[in-house]
Specification:
five-stranded parallel β-sheet; FAD/NAD(P)-binding domain; single chain; alpha/beta; about 20% strand
């Protein structure tokens, strides 16, 4: 046991995943060094009035979709006076306070870019990595016994321009939702939002109060949930519990499908609002928006199918209808992933999904000394999820917890991907 003490671990990113990883390393007696390219902790939740390269970007009005009781670090509850669903500024305050009170800042090197992570020549024996960083124009290399990638998945925008014929001829403005910061400048404008995810719905509802008309184009529909659920309780306190999970995994599929669709349609019938998912039984991550149904029924937001093509001034949808005189198109089309500091052979992908065991470990590595923290999107809060991921990953890197064989890990990944293929085909 003693020989594992003092192993050095490089942590890339100082968002909630990075902070959880620093803390987990310290608890297990490892030596963390966290590299953060910006000047502060928070990652995605650190607001900037412009999108910054290599960092997550959010808009001014973002609120959490998880309640504070369900999204704290296990040993660090939110102050009582914080609202149940928090503005992004409150969450950033919490993250900063956590980092200070847990004494994590001393382990972070700010304004430091990780430019390369590569296996050492003796990796198959030692499991060590060479980590090359850049700060103030100076390059530095150091050896680490483990690497934890905590750079998130809201960094590299997915903008499939080739999927939209005629977009090059469109004369209005068009950009990814990553660039959107607020409703200023949209008064009286006609706006098309492509994508029915959380960002797309948030942006559309916000703009509907100032823009002349907002249209959302959706390829496959989505379930829309309110933050306020049964009897006025937060949705996650009602929905995410062991008993419901037991029922969902134990009862026959036709019963759970019927119950799931009944619950999702409880507040309003999605079909009447043009929101019904193509396959309503798929457990895709729902959208959380308290205002969208009201904005649709008031006519300030209109739901349309996928865009068939663009013209110089308009969009033609798959149903043949046309949205004329568009001023701006905002593509809320999600994010891809990229690790520009890594060789492509380290973390592979299939079907546009990263090949990671339980969303954390690259299976083919000779030594399990690299982990990806916070990449998965779970139904529920990210903070307790990444906290558990970090605790597990650190124990594996330390050597006190082992992974299954490569073949068993690949089988687990194959099963997960098989279940997701149907869902992926509908996105």
């Amino acid at each position: 046991m003693m020989e594992t003490m003092g192993k050095k671990v490089a942590i890339i990113g100082a968002g909630v995943s990075g902070l959880a990883s620093i803390r987990a390393c310290l608890e297990e007696g490892l030596e963390p060094t966290c590299f953060e390219r910006s000047d502060d902790v928070g990652g995605l939740w650190k607001f900037s009035d412009h999108a910054e390269e290599g960092r997550g970007s959010i808009y001014q009005s973002v609120f959490t979709n998880s309640s504070k009781e369900m999204m704290c670090f296990p040993d660090f509850p939110y102050p009582d006076n914080y609202p149940i669903f928090m503005h992004r500024s409150k969450l950033q305050e919490y993250i900063t306070t956590f980092a200070k009170e847990k004494n994590l800042l001393r382990y972070i090197r700010f304004k430091t870019l990780v430019s390369e992570v590569k296996k050492r020549p003796d990796f198959s024996v030692t499991g060590q990595w060479d980590v090359v960083t850049e700060q103030d124009g100076k390059q530095e290399s150091a050896v680490f016994d483990g690497v934890m990638i905590c750079s998130g998945h809201h960094v590299y925008p997915n903008l499939p321009k080739s999927d939209f014929p005629g977009l090059k001829e469109f004369k209005g403005k068009s950009y990814h939702s990553r660039e959107y910061k607020g409703p200023e400048g949209f008064k009286g404008k006609r706006v098309l939002v492509v994508g029915l995810g959380n960002s797309g719905c948030d942006i559309a509802t916000e703009l509907s109060y100032t823009a002349a008309q907002v249209v959302i184009s959706s390829r496959s529909g989505s379930w829309v949930m309110s933050r306020v659920w049964d009897d006025g309780y937060p949705w996650d306190m009602v929905y995410i519990n062991r008993f419901d999970c037991f029922l969902r995994t134990s009862l026959p599929t036709f019963i759970t499908d019927w119950w799931y669709m009944k619950k999702m349609n409880m507040k309003f019938k999605h079909e009447n609002y043009g929101l019904m998912p193509l396959d309503g039984t798929l457990r895709k991550e729902p959208v959380f928006n308290d205002e969208l149904p009201a904005r649709i029924i008031c006519g300030t937001v209109t739901i349309k199918p996928n865009v068939k093509e663009f013209t110089e001034t308009s969009a033609v949808f798959q149903d043949g209808t046309v949205f004329e005189a568009i001023d701006t198109v905002i593509f809320a089309t999600g994010y891809g992933y990229a690790y520009p500091f890594l060789d492509d052979s380290v973390i592979k992908s299939r079907n546009n999904e990263v090949t990671l065991f339980k969303g954390v470990f690259p299976p083919p590595l000779e030594k399990p000394t690299m982990a990806v923290i916070g990449l998965i999107q779970s139904l529920g809060a990210a903070i307790p999820t990444v906290d558990l991921q970090a605790r597990w990953a650190v124990r594996v890197i330390k050597g006190t917890c082992s992974l299954p064989s490569v073949s068993d890990m690949m089988h687990d990944i194959d099963e997960k991907m098989r279940k997701n293929l149907k869902c992926l085909a509908q996105r």
